[in-house]
Amino acid sequence: MVTLLVVVLGIRIRFAKGMCRVREVLGQLRVPVVAAPMFLITGPDLVIAAGRAGALGAFPAPNARTVDDLDEWMSTIRTGLRTSNGATLPWAVNLVTHRTNDRLAADLKVVAEHRPPVVITALGSPKPVMEVVKGYGGLVIADVVSVGLAQKAVAAGVDGLACICAGAGGHTGHLSPFAFISAVREFFDGIIAVGGGISDGYGVAGAVTAGADLVYVGTRFLATTESLAVQEYKQMVVDHGLDDLIVSSAVTGTDASWLRPSLAANGYDPGDMGAPAIRSYNSGSDAGHKRWKDIWAAGQGLQTIHGIEPAAAVVDRLEREYREAMTRRMTLQTRGAPAT
């Protein structure tokens, strides 16, 4: 397996905090990719398939409709990622920490029991999860969409940041990944995961070269056999491209990247999306599930997705492309080296 600990084809991985735990968790990855947690899309099958293939599988806790379901999902994932020597491959859960999520406390109790190696926080401060997750030795990575939010998360003591950039599917960001990585590296030497429009190994290599340690890949894993997306949704991702995406806050109250045909099919006018909706991220609410169930999101990586295939095949291709890109980088570097 490819190790991500000290040097990956000339790229130094920098971890300031929790070095031993980071090595234990991320050192088992074959490629520096997170199969991004996608609302209503990622379930145990996809987390397990991605994890066994060598990526970091992650799912949003609200995808499990009840706390009992969450408990069952985590048990299934731990069993599915258990290796022959009794160890468990790394995986992650994404918790919504926005104040409107009234299920967070109950979800945290399940997290404390199952101890996922990585907990990703989203749509709110990471502070509510820090004591529990750090208490059992887990890593906390906070989703952020701005430098200001990144600074607040670092002050809270997180191990990593997931910098959500322009081009991300679902709730999206607005910054260039290269600018975002550079800005964050000015004050943070922990784990940086970056996401936004990356669906191949060449983009993964570019992000790592720019200073990221991990790369979120979402839409590419949406169109996999293990994804919870309905077949029509997967096929829409395959059949459409960049010009079929619209970023709007009219559906959830926060800017998100939507598929134009899905908006039209649900009564929205893609040319006039109207005023923002009221924000609500309550895990126990059916309303939020319904919006995302009926209206489909995607990121800018969909242009290069040409079929629905198993997650393991996606990881294989990502690793091959990643190696090709890094080899090309080393070749160009060698060519440019001064003669001795």
Describe what you observe in this structure.
Pfam families: NMO (PF03060). One of its GO terms (molecular function) is nitronate monooxygenase activity. Belongs to the nitronate monooxygenase family. NMO class I subfamily. Keywords: Flavoprotein, FMN, Monooxygenase, Oxidoreductase. This protein is an alpha/beta fold and 340 residues long. Helix content is 39%, strand content 16%. The chain has one domain: Aldolase class I (TIM Barrel, Alpha-Beta Barrel). The strands form three sheets. The protein has an eight-stranded parallel beta barrel with strand order 3-4-5-6-7-8-10-11, surrounded by seven helices. The longest helix is centred in the C-terminal third of the chain and has 25 residues, at 311-335. The radius of gyration is 19 Å and the shape is globular.
CATH class reads: Alpha Beta
Overall spatial form: globular
| Fraction in helix | 25-40%
Query: SSE order in H/E notation?
Result: EEHEHEHEHEHEHEEHEHEHHEEHHH
What do we call the CATH topology? TIM Barrel
How large is the radius of gyration? 19 Å
Beginning-to-end CA distance, first to last residue? 35 Å
CATH superfamily membership:
Aldolase class I
Q: How many structural domains are formed by the residues?
A: 1
Strand count, sense and barrel status of the largest sheet are: 8 strands, parallel, barrel
Would you identify the regions where 5 or more consecutive residues have pLDDT less than 50? 1-17
Which structural class matches the secondary elements? alpha/beta
| Order of strands, widest sheet | 3-4-5-6-7-8-10-11
Strand content is 15-25%
CATH architectural label: Alpha-Beta Barrel
* Average pLDDT taken over every residue: 88
Tell me how many strands there are.
13
* Helix count from the secondary structure assignment: 13
Keywords: Flavoprotein, FMN, Monooxygenase, Oxidoreductase
Protein name: Nitronate monooxygenase
Family: Belongs to the nitronate monooxygenase family. NMO class I subfamily.
Organism: Rudaeicoccus suwonensis
